[in-house]
Sequence to fold (360 residues):
Amino acid sequence: MSSQSANSTDSTPRSFTIPDFVTMCPFTLRFNPHYEPHAKLSYDWLDSFGVHLTTKHRDAFQAMDFGLLTAICYPDADEARFRVLCDYVNALFAFDDLTDEGSLRKDGHGTRKASDIVMNALYSPSTYENSFKVGNVFASFWGRALELGASPGTQRRFLESTDLYVCAVHEQVVNRAENKMLGVDEFIHLRRDTGALKARMCFAMGEFGMKLNIPDEVFAHPSIKIMENCANDVVVLSNDVYSYNIEQAQGDTMNIIETSMRDRDLDLQGAIDFAGQLVKERIDLFVATKANLPSWGGKIDADLQTYLRVCEDWMVGGFHWSLGSTRYFGERAEEVRNTLRVELLPKQDPRGQVEIPGLE
Fold:
């Protein structure tokens, strides 16, 4: 018997078709030449902290190839900074897995404690000590970033966006534990801070990677805020589409698909298409806004274009990596990339349930 699609009259869809984000995206995919050997060295660095409690978990984490994500989202970073960026992305996903799939996914108290530890590590990387291993990971990469150099504005934006992120993650965990339902607009606002790729933090790390020193007045301009919000939404909303199959199998409703199905009375394929339209609208708005930016002078304008290219790299890089990584589609990644069709997984327990050392 053939599988039912999400558009079937059957009330229980068997599959859905994801939007062709790659085709709708006008930005060029590029690749950092320092991927080798630093992707592998970064995995070894993370492993040295004992974050992975089992060999199976370590192998699954490394198979997702976060080094490739770093290489296509920061293609212009020099070798030393690229290595720090690899470590940052690995650290980010290690923390993300604790709150999305590990023992913290419905533990508001534990998530708050973990979030405080991460921020303490970032504010005092040279003196930080704690048994929470992910905190040590954050202190390590950020300490080396400061040694290489980052402008005061870059440091402040990274710390502020990280603080917003960990606070929003805590709110999301509490909402998940309480089964709190949000409307589409409220959900998008929350997701701008909790997005799996943590886009605002990632953009700030792009400033570090490109040695930028852009004045605060530029970032405060309404057009720049619009473009950052657009890029952020593109990254997190497309991520919600790509990760939906795993999340629905885990019973997780904190994504744009479940939210729009409930809030807009859509079926599954309708909700997937709605998310695709939101992404397309934001790509178009980003491009239109970029074409009408004011000028702040030659050097600042050039640095700003470099920064906006970081935003573009994260959008197009996220699309390509998500379709190619095992993170969302496992061994069927190539098939999904070619057909855009996803067969729904059966309901199951959340993957990655582990106890977290240092949070007793």
Summary: The beta strands are 15-17, 341-343. The two ends are 50 Å apart (CA to CA).
